[in-house]
């Protein structure tokens, strides 16, 4: 399996869940939790949790469990959420518009600093507090600003050309909702592909299994 | 880990990916693929693929590999995509509107048969080919139609009341985008929670790791 700094991608994908659950515990004033209690809350095994967290250092204390605030803070650093990375959105149709408003970019480590579209009816308007900029100005923008990630919410056929534009400007990471494979020919880029339909198919399986 | 019919949820979550990749191969006229080739395409190991597929039966042939069309068809049946389940959407703001248009419900095993909202400016309008119905008519609709899944795109504070309404009508499965925990007090329901921010946090980790 893919490894990042020697940590399997399966573990990395669980980290955001830990971060979210610990955030909820903290918000409810809970200071301390055992791996067993956390496991019940998260539908994992206590041993899985301890194994995962041991990849990054010994955070718990035997007999005590984990301090919620410290553990959350450690995971925040592991995830790199305190780096103030910059993200831009490309494609401000329903999907892009929804994500700009629905997703907590800041909480996930990113400042959403610009949005681009080619539709003249959208250019100059705002999505949230961000002004929609002409898509043709992407290269100028990237030259004047530090852009770490491009969030792609454009039609599938536009995905590759748009990605190429960003890659030319030195932007090497993408959050890709387009269903296009933008990494072909670009093994150096980091892409997080989102296939929402996968969760729906999993749900279909579970519903079907329950009916038997 | 959670088990469904003796199959781990990790395997179940990989099935939609297999289904998608096999669909792409089929669309490109490729009839046959080895586990090694499929592994390279999917960034898994050949042995993982064989183990996963062996959970459901022996589909490959040693020396031949897998027949793309048959394997895809088998996975379609395993996922239960041919059951014509019915889904309804609740909440037709930007997010709900985007999902109704962006997500291939049919390809994931569902007919999207209705959309509900409480906003009088939306009621009676259409999202795609579906008319937006008054939210207060959910119970009538569920009594007259077979509804398998409710897709929740309502504000967080509305999630639990909306879920309760559906549970009262006998709808026990949810695709939940609201961040609310709707399964509290309802261990019998099937919920697929979507936390889009998790993928963004994973991306943050990967970008940070690459900079080191």
Profile the largest sheet of chain A. Answer: 7 strands, mixed
> Which two chains touch over the largest interface?
A-B, 63 and 63 residues
Distance between the termini of chain A: 33 Å
Q: What Rg of chain A, in angstroms, do the CA atoms define?
A: 20 Å
Oligomer: homodimer
Which geometry of chain A do the CA atoms define? globular
Strand order of the largest sheet of chain A: 7-8-6-5-9-10-11
Number of helices of chain A: 8
Characterize the structure shown.
2 copies of one chain form a homodimer. Chain A has 212 residues and is of the alpha/beta class. In chain A, 44% of the residues lie in helices and 19% in strands. Chain A contains 8 helices and 11 strands. Chain A has a 7-stranded mixed beta sheet. A two-stranded antiparallel ribbon of chain A has the order 1-2. In chain A, strands 3-4 form a two-stranded antiparallel ribbon. Chain A starts with a strand and ends with a helix.
SSE inventory with pairings:
The structure is a homodimer of 212-residue chains.
Chain A: E1 3-4, E2 7-8, H1 9-27, E3 32-33, H2 35-42, H3 46-54, E4 66-67, H4 68-79, E5 85-90, H5 94-102, E6 110-117, E7 126-127, E8 130-134, H6 138-144, E9 149-152, H7 156-168, E10 173-176, E11 190-193, H8 196-211
Parallel strand pairs in A: 5-6, 5-9, 6-8, 9-10, 10-11
Antiparallel strand pairs in A: 1-2, 3-4, 7-8
Helix pairs in contact in A: 1-4, 2-3
């Amino acid at each position: 399996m893919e490894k990042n700094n020697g940590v399997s991608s399966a573990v990395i994908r669980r980290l955001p869940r830990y971060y979210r659950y610990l955030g909820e515990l903290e918000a409810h004033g809970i200071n301390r939790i055992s791996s067993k209690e956390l496991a019940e809350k998260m539908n994992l095994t206590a041993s899985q949790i301890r194994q995962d967290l041991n990849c990054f250092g010994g955070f718990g204390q035997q007999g005590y469990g984990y301090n919620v605030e410290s553990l959350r803070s450690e995971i925040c650093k592991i995830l790199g959420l305190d780096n103030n990375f910059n993200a831009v959105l490309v494609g401000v149709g329903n999907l892009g518009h929804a994500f700009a408003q629905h997703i907590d970019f800041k909480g996930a480590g990113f400042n959403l600093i610009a949005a681009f579209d080619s539709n003249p009816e959208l250019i100059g308007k705002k999505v949230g507090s961000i002004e929609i900029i002409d898509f043709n100005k992407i290269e100028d923008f990237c030259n004047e600003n530090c852009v770490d990630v491009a969030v792609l919410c454009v039609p599938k056929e536009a995905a590759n050309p748009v990605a190429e534009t960003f890659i030319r400007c030195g932007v090497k990471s993408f959050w890709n909702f387009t269903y296009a494979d933008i990494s072909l020919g670009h093994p150096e880029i980091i892409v997080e592909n989102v296939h929402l339909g996968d969760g729906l198919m999993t749900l279909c399986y579970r519903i079907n299994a329950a009916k038997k």
